[in-house]
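We modelled the chain as a single entity of 518 amino acids. Its sequence is:
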Amino acid sequence: MSTLFAGLDVSTQGCKLLIIDHTNEEVVYTTSVNYDNDLSNYDTINGVIKDAPEGVSESEPQMWLDAVDMVFSQAKDDNVTLSNIKCIAVSGQQHGLVSLDENDNLTRNRSKLWNDFSTAEECQILTNKIGGKDSMIEEIGNTQRTGYTASKIFHMQRNEPNKYDKTRTFFLVHNYINWYLTGGVKVMEPGDTSGMALWNPKNGQWSQKVINIIDPGLKDKLPPVKPAYETIGTISKNLANKFGFSPECKIDAGSGDNMYGAIGTGNVESGIVTISLGTSGTAYTFMEKPYIDPDGEIAAFCDSTGHYLPLVCVSNMANGYNQVLDNYNIDHQEFVNIIGEVKPGNGGRILLPWYEGERTPDLPNAAPIYFGFDLGDFTKENLCRAVIEGHVLNIYAGFERMPIDFREIRLTGGLSKSPAWRQMIADVFEAEAVPVEGEGAALGAAIHAGWVWLNESDQEISISEIVKSYVKLKEKERCKPNKNNRKIYDNMKRLFKSLSQRIRGLAAEDPFIIKNNI
């Protein structure tokens, strides 16, 4: 009888189920649900409720539960022996807020998501009341950002006090799915919790100062934080009977999608950086000790192995690329051909791709900036080149302050399939870049479920050892940095940094002088 472990990835746009067979060390099943297409009754675009006010990004939590049931049903219909699954781990989109009343009913039937920018005022109030940005970083290891959860709770308390008062439990997305899977267990874990801007990853404590600014009673609405490397219970009788799981199937503590994305790309030891190229862009790495960025640009997160995961997130990544494809009615290969007609560096023409506000740098009201373009320069070729360079330079600008030495970049997400994006990452980051096979976060969740269950079953195994069995690199698609482009992109990085700092009123080099050297 095979020993199976499952990973659920409940993301912004869809839900994935991935199952690994520990006996044969292979992925044996995957299935997925797209919210827009498969749960169209929720009326979403890219998983987000349509026609929301500017800056608002929300989804219905019930949609996620329906999606979980749907992937379980698909697996059952495909004759997967769900009774052999020993443990399930949930990867959830980070920072989304779910609230339950005393009877465990939703007090708000919509969840504010990671890319909701409507809580900028709450972020500013929290920061001012605690004594400024430096005091906030000292208190929670991070700044207050609209993407994080504290301002979402504060927004609810200020704007929907009746719903806030009725709330007895605040969850993150993966905690809510775990509550559903277990039939009622309410716990958090350090990885996802460290992105709430209420809990300090360095000392592992809730910030009473931040909590008191929102509401001294908030502490009682927050579940206890338990270790990420333990199980929290077993699957509910209802789900066991409905889908055929063993009643002894355990539920892992779960975590955020970035924590499990790290595991799913083999980023569990020093020297590796993961870059996820999707709706948003993230860059993160494994660290033995916490890193607190004095400017608060680099997120101070815990990982899911008892260590740390400093992370840079940019809100804008696939959006600019997809828009330019639509505008010119071109496909991925045509894009590659078009940018080949323009030399690297684009003659100093550069784009700061802040289309929908930006998370890093923290500019929720930002707009895109085009620099160095003459009136005749807004051509398809120049704009395509500017888009790919601008997005990669944007994520690099946030990442470059991270105090690490790394030997390799592991790529995941939809854009990692593009040879142009892979080469651009290698050139700008000056490191080899290689895509990873499969579904990063869902695979990471399944691996974590196996690691936790095996160790709790007295079959001691390191996370590094189990990762090696499942994480496969696409070696034929590995890109090495082009040495001929190094000087060009060194200057482009300087130019991007100069423009980014000057637009924020910070001291910087003269961008016009830098441009003349490109």
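As a brief sanity check on the tokenised model: The longest helix spans residues 380-399. The mean pLDDT is 95.
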